[in-house]
Design brief:
One of its GO terms (biological process) is AMP salvage. The protein has nine helices and five strands. It is α/β, with parallel strands linked by helices and 184 residues long. Bound molecules: BIS(adenosine)-5'-pentaphosphate (AP5).
C-alpha cells in the first residue's frame, strides 16, 4: 500500500514525479494545485474564492483546501493508496491531515521532500510559463514556501516519516532515488 506525500518548493518536480509514480502504481495523484486550477476553470465557488490567492502566489485559506482534500481522500479510489502533491503546506494542514488519516484508518504514509536550489526552480518555472510562473509571483511563492511550508520538514522529521531526495538531477534519476528512499 503506497501512501506518499510530496513536499518541496515550487518547481521542485512534485507534480512531475507524483504523476509518473501514480500512473506506475495505478493509484490516484491528488494535486491540490490541479484541483484548484480546475475549480477556477469551471468557475465554481471554490475556484472563484481561490483565484486572487493563486494569482498572487499566496496560499488559499487552510479551511477551503482542507475541505477539498477531505472530500477527495474519502472517495473509494483512495483505498489502495494515493499520492498527495501540494498538501499539506502549513503546519495547520499537516495536523488536519493526520487527524483525517487516523479517522480513515490510512496509516504508514511517507513524506518525500524534493530538495532543489532556488535558482534552479526559478529557471524551470520561467521556462514552463504557467499563469503563476512570472518572476515576481515565483519569488512570492518561494517566500511563502519558506515561511509556511518549509517548517514541515522538521515536523515530519520529528515523526520519522521524512525522506530527502535530490531533485536537482534528471527526471529518471529523481524517480529512481525516490523508489530507493521509500523502500528503506
Ligand atoms: P501548486 O500547483 O501546488 O504549485 P507549486 O507548489 O508552486 O508547484 P509547481 O506545480 O509549480 O511545481 P512542482 O514541484 O509540482 O513542479 P513540476 O513537477 O510542475 O500550487 C499552485 C497554487 O495553488 C499555490 O500557489 C496556492 O495558491 C494554491 N495551493 C495549492 N495547494 C495549496 C495548499 N495545500 N494550501 C493552500 N494553497 C494551495 O515541475 C516544474 C517544471 O520543472 C516543469 O516544467 C517540469 O517539466 C520541470 N522539471 C521537473 N523536474 C525536473 C527535473 N528533474 N529536471 C528538469 N526539469 C524538471
Amino acid at each position: 500500500m503506497t501512501r506518499l506525500i510530496f513536499l518541496g518548493p515550487p518547481g521542485a518536480g512534485k507534480g512531475t514525479q507524483a504523476k509518473a509514480l501514480a500512473d506506475h502504481w495505478q493509484i490516484p495523484h491528488i494535486s491540490t494545485g490541479d484541483i484548484l486550477r480546475q475549480a477556477l476553470k469551471d468557475q465554481t465557488p471554490l475556484g472563484i474564492k481561490a483565484k486572487g490567492y493563486m494569482d498572487r502566489g499566496e496560499l488559499v485559506p487552510d479551511q477551503l483546501v482542507q475541505d477539498m482534500v477531505e472530500e477527495r481522500l474519502t472517495q473509494a479510489d483512495t483505498k489502495h493508496g494515493w499520492i498527495l502533491d501540494g498538501f499539506p503546506r502549513t503546519v495547520q494542514q499537516a495536523g488536519f491531515l493526520e487527524a483525517l488519516l487516523d479517522r480513515l484508518d490510512h496509516h504508514g504514509e511517507k513524506v518525500v521532500n524534493l530538495d532543489v536550489p532556488d535558482e534552479i526552480v526559478i529557471g524551470r518555472l520561467l521556462e514552463r510559463g504557467r499563469k503563476d510562473d512570472t518572476e515576481s509571483v515565483i519569488r512570492r511563492r518561494l517566500e511563502v514556501y519558506r515561511e509556511e511550508t518549509a517548517p514541515l520538514i522538521d515536523y515530519y522529521t520529528g515523526k520519522q516519516q521524512l525522506v530527502i531526495v535530490n531533485g536537482n538531477q534528471s527526471l529518471e534519476e529523481v524517480t529512481v532515488e525516490i523508489g530507493q528512499a521509500i523502500s528503506c
